[in-house]
Design a protein that fits this description.
heterodimer; A: 376 residues; 9 helices; 27% helix; B: 230 residues; 11 helices; globular
């Protein structure tokens, strides 16, 4: 079984990495997070370019790092392929020499030709990096990393060195290359669209901590906490003041739910495309502030009674109310997500601590629930 | 002119070339790690060490020579150690001359190397490591090509500066023909005894040599620079 386990604490003057993840054995995992959240540092720990003050990194049966036993496998011995942020090609070597750098001289020639052909850069073999476009440089970097048949491929913001109009096209090309790889791929980015396009799994990293790691579909469907939702591009957050058995009550109104909400709920979230405008039934009252034309849809900027901003999307070919109108909004229950406040300073715990805490937490929650329902 | 006098005339040239070449070799061995450290450290010691390595630039050679003489002399710490190891004194010897030259020319080698290390692309080194390259392979295939201009500058400046030194050599090396009498001192002595013809020969030779070397270096440097920009 192919697994990668990372547990790392690394403290610098202005920053702390403090995380623990189990990387999925296959496919593309994207670590998504704002700049400065420690994504690149995590990647560098994996490559052996950074030495955490405390931690364990295990790939399959081999231990790459264990600070308790002072084990540290240097980058040369890890067999990890890295595509650096601006590719870090060897500027004084041509494409062929760049790609063949990681090989012994004997096996180099035929294998280099093979990989140049695979990535469709065989016509560039004798060019130097400064003669290449951004997309070509990316392919050279990929070929150079993959030719050594690494056990793990790391990509650090692979599109940040490119112009915006090129990114879409190169995303497709990169997808073609990495989606067929047998080995796991770990990519870090701050770009939501890149993550959505390429990832099988997404881990959201905030302030040096991977807050959540799950399949792309699951994590986009239910982010669970406010800060994870923010990173994933959610925008509608309605504060929850109190929960009375099946109802959520707040300054903006109230909503009755069939399923009993958890007492940890601090926010109610919903995607703009799921909110309906309901003229017949009474819903949540809102005022339409502004209508913005977007690509293929209109965005309706509204304000609730308590001043909370809420965004709606309507198809471009549907009539929209005028700015200033009063609307009744309906939030369908199946699209409502209940979020906890983020735990920014969450630190990792060992598996044992975690399961113990989980048990006690559910127990307490259960008791409180009971008390509430009894008094109600 | 007999062949014996010719070889006596050219002896200072030979000694100068030997001193300069050996000094450059020693300085590269010492200077590389020092320059690397200075380029990458965040230590508080960086500024004092930088200042110390630059001292020979500003100190009068006589001051430097005076303290080197005390240090290398038979009563100085280095001189005593040398005597106990080899049995002969260090001051006014060829070896002493090399040590003094190394101190004197240190900034001319360290500073270009430090600048080259500072502007080098550090990630290409890390990329080489992740591709399995040993430190040695990384050094000669990735680092050396990137710092070649700085390296060439360091070698040439170190060599030329050592070739032209006078004050320190006079203080530490003395003026022993065939042992420590270098070109600049030989010329000085020839002028003192009014042998202008010999002084001319050596001076013109040194002038032409220096010009040709610098001309070639600037040419090569420009060529390399163009290659990078092309």
């Amino acid at each position: 079984m192919n697994t990668l386990y990372i547990e790392a604490k690394l403290k610098r003057d202005d920053f702390e990495l403090n995380t623990k993840i189990n990387l999925p054995a296959q496919g593309v995992t994207v670590i998504l997070g704002p700049s400065g959240s420690g994504k690149t540092t995590l990647l560098r720990c994996l490559a052996g370019l950074e030495h955490p003050q405390q931690g364990i990194i295990k790939k399959d049966q081999s231990v790459w790092l264990d600070t308790r036993t002072k084990t540290f496998v240097p980058p040369q011995k890890r067999n990890v392929g890295v595509v650096f942020q601006d590719y870090a090609l060897f500027e004084h070597m041509n494409v062929q020499a760049n790609v063949g750098f990681g090989l012994d001289r004997l096996q180099a020639q035929s294998k280099v030709s093979e990989w140049l052909a695979k990535l469709k850069i065989d016509n560039l073999a004798h060019r130097y990096p400064h003669q290449l476009s951004g997309g070509q440089r990316q392919r050279v970097a990929l070929a150079r990393a993959l030719i050594t048949e690494p056990e793990l491929l790391l990509l650090d913001e692979p599109f940040s060195a490119l112009d915006t109009h090129l990114r879409q096209q190169l995303r497709e090309q990169l997808f073609e290359v990495i989606s067929y790889l047998k080995q796991p791929v770990l990519m870090v980015t701050h770009d939501l669209n890149e993550a959505r396009y390429l990832a099988d799994h997404i881990g959201v990293m905030i302030n040096g901590v991977v807050q959540r790691l799950d399949s792309t579909a699951k994590i986009f469907d239910d982010p669970c906490s406010l800060e994870v939702a923010r990173v994933l591009g959610w925008r509608n957050f309605l504060p929850v003041t109190s929960i009375q058995s099946h109802s959520i009550i707040s300054a903006w109104g109230s909503i009755a739910l069939e399923e009993e909400p958890s007492i940890d709920t601090d926010w109610l979230a919903i995607r703009p495309e799921h909110i309906r405008i309901n003229s017949q039934q009474a819903g949540i009252e809102a005022e339409l502030i502004r209508v913005i034309e977007m690509d293929g849809y209109r965005e309706l900027q509204c304000r609730l009674q308590d001043g909370t901003a809420i965004y709606l999307q309507r198809p471009w070919n549907e009539l929209t109310p005028l700015a200033g109108s009063r609307l009744q909004l309906e939030l369908p229950e199946q699209h409502i997500r209940l979020l906890e406040e983020g735990r920014t300073n969450l630190t990792y715990q060992t598996e044992m601590e975690k399961s113990a805490e989980q048990k006690s937490k559910t127990l307490v929650a259960h008791k409180i629930h009971k008390q509430i329902s009894q008094t109600a | 002119m007999t062949s014996a006098t010719v070889s006596m005339d050219l002896m200072p040239v030979w000694i100068s070339l030997q001193v300069s070449a050996l000094t450059v070799v020693c300085l590269l061995i010492i200077g590389m790690p020092v320059a690397w450290w200075l380029a990458h450290t965040h230590s508080r010691l960086k500024i004092p060490i930088e200042a110390v390595t630059a001292l020979p630039l500003v100190l009068p050679p006589t001051v430097l020579g005076f303290y080197l003489l005390l240090f290398l002399g038979p009563n100085g710490p280095a001189g005593q150690l040398w005597i106990s190891l080899t049995g002969s004194p260090l001051a006014f010897s060829f070896s002493g001359l090399i040590i003094a030259s190394c101190v004197y020319s240190l900034p001319f080698v360290v500073q270009p190397l430090q600048a080259a290390f500072e502007t080098m692309d550090k990630r290409s080194i890390e990329a080489a490591w992740t591709l399995g390259a040993s430190r040695f392979k990384t050094f000669h295939l990735i680092i050396i090509p990137q710092i070649r201009r700085g390296l060439l500058t360091a070698i040439v400046l170190g060599f030329a500066h050592t070739l032209g030194e006078f004050g320190v050599v006079l203080m530490v090396g003395g003026n022993i023909p065939g042992e420590t009498q270098v070109i600049s001192i030989a010329i000085y002595e020839m002028v003192e005894i009014l042998d202008y013809e010999s002084a001319h020969k050596l001076s013109v030779g040194l002038l032409l040599f220096s010009f040709v070397v610098l001309f070639l270096v600037y040419g090569v440097n420009r060529q390399w620079h163009r290659q990078r920009l092309a």
